[in-house]
Design a protein that fits this description.
The chain is of the alpha/beta class. 23% of the residues lie in helices and 25% in strands. Strands 4-1-9-10-11-12-13-14 form an eight-stranded mixed sheet, sandwiched between helices. GO terms for molecular function: kinase activity. This is PfkB family carbohydrate kinase. InterPro entries: PfkB_dom, Ribokinase-like.
Length: 311
């Protein structure tokens, strides 16, 4: 049974993310200079875990092993600095790596090298799920086997699930695994250019599942949350963009907390006027009063932001 005081268990893979910034993407068979290179981590689950810790929630990250190489040491240090219990290190393992390239127009693409991630995740011990208050799981096609195992464990323990589709369609095996489960939230995203479709995408997810809420983020146009009886919209907030990697991840812990508790999502009046800097992601943005602990004050200027149009 669900343990209300237990941790939020996040199931995903973990990898080094090498972030490239380029002025623009080149044409085929051409090149372009790299303006900057930074290191971070992937995937969504570890970043969500770090954001939840910053909000004061107990968290347990279940992910693949990492290596004792330079990339693995960075990942382990990144997690430890954010009080996320580090994953297991195997000296003979190669740490998974993703290169994420973003241009000055804030579009991005990525290249993933994920050795042994699938086999590793399919063997992780899911015992912590039985004592969890909540399960967050990245529903990526590449780790589908681990996703199905995690969902089954959560259903046996009768704990709420936030299923992050990450912009991908809901796969048939996953849809079957969550069928009829009442303690479910589903989250995904659409490209900025498709922001007008956000409500329709959320509604379609509700029709295919028994989810209480479906949340769809739409980049600079904010996010929507749709339930069986409500439709809520949250505007985007001003931010100084360093890189579009992980840009939407802070919304996931916030949405899971608000929606599962049956509260309302933030409205414009909930967003503070001063700009803050997130201790987790080192980005500058307005912040919600509900998650004030994640932020420290800053003197960055305000920036115009966009709103999801009402229907």
């Amino acid at each position: 049974m669900r343990n209300p005081s237990g941790p939020v268990v996040c199931v995903s893979y973990v990898a080094l993310a090498e972030l490239w910034t380029v002025p623009r993407f080149p044409r085929v068979n051409y090149g372009t200079p790299i303006s900057s290179i930074e290191w971070s981590i992937a995937a969504d689950g570890p970043m969500t875990a770090a954001a939840l810790v910053a909000m004061g929630a107990p968290v347990r990250l279940l992910a693949n092993d990492i290596g004792g190489d330079e990339h693995g040491r960075f990942v382990r240090r990144w997690l430890a600095q954010r009080d996320v219990i580090p994953v297991t290190t195997r000296p003979d393992a190669t740490t998974p790596r993703i290169v994420v390239a973003a241009d000055d127009a804030h579009t991005r693409t990525w290249f993933a090298h994920l050795p042994h991630v699938v086999s590793g995740l399919e063997q992780i011990d899911l015992t912590p799920v039985t004592a969890a208050s909540f399960l967050y799981v990245d529903s990526y096609e590449i780790i589908e086997g681990a996703v199905l195992r995690a969902i089954a464990a959560a259903r046996r323990a009768e704990i709420p699930i936030l299923l992050n589709l990450g912009g991908s369609p809901l796969a048939a095996p996953t849809a079957a695994a969550i069928a009829g489960y009442p303690h479910l939230l589903v989250q995904t995203n659409v490209d900025d250019s498709d922001y007008l479709e956000a409500v329709a995408v959320a509604t379609a997810l509700l029709e295919r599942t028994s989810a209480k809420w479906a949340v769809v983020t739409a980049g600079a146009f904010g996010a929507v949350a749709v339930s069986r009886s409500k439709e809520l919209a949250v505007p985007s907030f001003p931010v100084n963009v360093r890189h579009t990697h992980c840009a939407g991840r802070p919304s996931q812990p916030g949405c899971s907390t608000v929606c599962e508790k049956g509260g309302r999502c933030c409205t414009a009046s909930d967003w503070d006027a001063p700009v803050g800097r997130c201790d987790v992601h080192d980005t500058t943005a307005h912040h919600c009063r509900a998650s004030r602990s994640c932020w420290r004050s800053s003197t960055q200027p305000n920036h115009p932001h966009r709103k999801m149009p009402s229907r």
